Amino acid sequence: MRDDPSVVAMVVRAAAGDQHAWDEIVERYAPLVYAICARYRLSRHDIEDVGQTVWLLLVEHLGQLREPAALPGWLATTTARECVRVVKAASKSEWRTAGRDDSLQFVDDRAIDEEILIAERNAGLRAVFAELPARCQRLLSMLISDPPHSYATIHETLGIPVGSIGPQRARCLDQLRRSSAFLTLAEGEIAGNTQGGKARA
Amino acid sequence: MPDNTNNEELSAILRDDDKLLAALREAMREREAVPAWFVETGKNAYAWHNIDAELAQLTYDSDNDQRLAAVTRSEPALIRTLAFTSPQLSLELEVSEDGLLGQIIPPGPGTLEIHTKAGIITTTVDEIGCFAVDPKPDNSFRLRCRTASGADVLTGWITL
Questions:
Q1: Which of A96, A133, A148, A180 would suit a FRET pair with A8, their CA atoms being 20 to 30 Å apart?
Q2: Yes or no, beta carbons of A59 and B39 under 8 Å apart
């Protein structure tokens, strides 16, 4: 996803003063930032602190991001660094007396790369999903709900004959696979994998 | 983990309907796990975009000196002092239990804003460039100082 043109466009527009583009960036990447905070098992207060700091830093650096497409990598490393700062600050005094627990102190590059890949794939899938026609979105939403709805319920809710649900599901997924956003996602992910840790340039 | 694993995993997701649906489910679940306030906080941060103030860098923090002197000292100092410097203006800050006392250099009147992540509090800088903030902010904050002479300076984030 390093070369996802939509990410570059969002960053450029946000840097030029477009609040709507900024909101899109936040919507798209808040799950990435949040997932990393959750991995450090921070309190709500600390998650809020980290989130605010990360987004404020991004606002200040919007114009200076040399490679806007590397945004997810920048966000992931910055978030992890801020999490470490918060964890350290919280347990500073305990460390002095009780010996240090370094397990959370250092950012694990590989774990972060993995996190970036998954979060980017998820963000890409959500973007692809949002491009589907409304009827496909409704059908797929019911199919992926947890627990999944039965075909009978889908028939009652959407009015699709039970025998047509399977074929329509297949058609909607095919449509999803053919969308340009999906191709970007697939190519980007493969490129991102072969380039490994460079995503954090 | 070798790269091939991820690629094979992705190819499987692309080909297989059930796996693609499962991947979609996971993507939606990840977003649903994010609280609304978290997203809101991110959107609000845009208010900082293009703030036309000059950044004042932290140039002195007595805490750093104390760490160096910790070996020879038995009691920590009660007052922490910080200094921020920009080409237009310097700002000195004393942190005590009760609050913050500050002075701008060169001295002169103006307004001081305390930007916390929750909002902005404004106070006055008097004729000789002094200001007080009471109580002290209990979270990270930045100070923005605008003087009658036209300087406009913003510090980095300060955590006490």
A1: A133
A2: no
Q: Note whether A189 contacts B6, CB cutoff 8 Å.
A: yes
A199 falls in which pLDDT band (50, 70, 90)? very low
* Domain B53-155 belongs in CATH node 2.30.30: no
CA distance A27 to A44: 19
Q: Which of A117, A131, A146, A109 is nearest to A32 (CA)?
A: A117
- Spell out the long-range contacts of A71-75 with Cβ–Cβ below 8 A and sequence spacing 24 or more: A71/A7, A71/A11, A71/A25, A71/A29, A72/A1, A72/A7, A72/A29, A72/A32, A72/A116, A72/A119, A72/A120, A72/A123, A72/A199, A73/A2, A73/A116, A73/A199, A73/A200, A73/A201, A74/A200, A75/A29, A75/A32, A75/A33
Mean pLDDT across B146-156:
92
Predicted local confidence at residue B69, as pLDDT: 62
- In this complex, do A49 and B28 lie within 8 Å of one another by their Cβ atoms? no
pLDDT band at A62 (very low <50, low <70, confident <90, very high): confident
Structure tokens at A141: 């939403």
Minimal CA separation from A29 to chain B, in Å: 9
Residue A121: closest C-alpha in chain B: B27
- Which part of chain B has CATH 2.60.40? 53-155
Q: Give the model's pLDDT for residue A184.
A: 67
Quick one: fold of A5-96+104-131? Answer: Rna Polymerase Sigma Factor; Chain: A (1.10.1740)
Hey, is the C-beta of B12 within 8 angstroms of any chain A C-beta? no
Question: Is the minimum CB–CB distance between A51 and chain B shorter than 8 Å?
Answer: yes
ipTM (interface predicted TM): 0.75
Model confidence pTM above 0.80: no
Which of B10, B24, B30 is nearest residue A31 as measured by Cβ atoms?
B30
Task: Out of B37, B41, B46, name the one closest to residue A22 (CB).
Answer: B46
In chain A, % of residues over pLDDT 70: 77
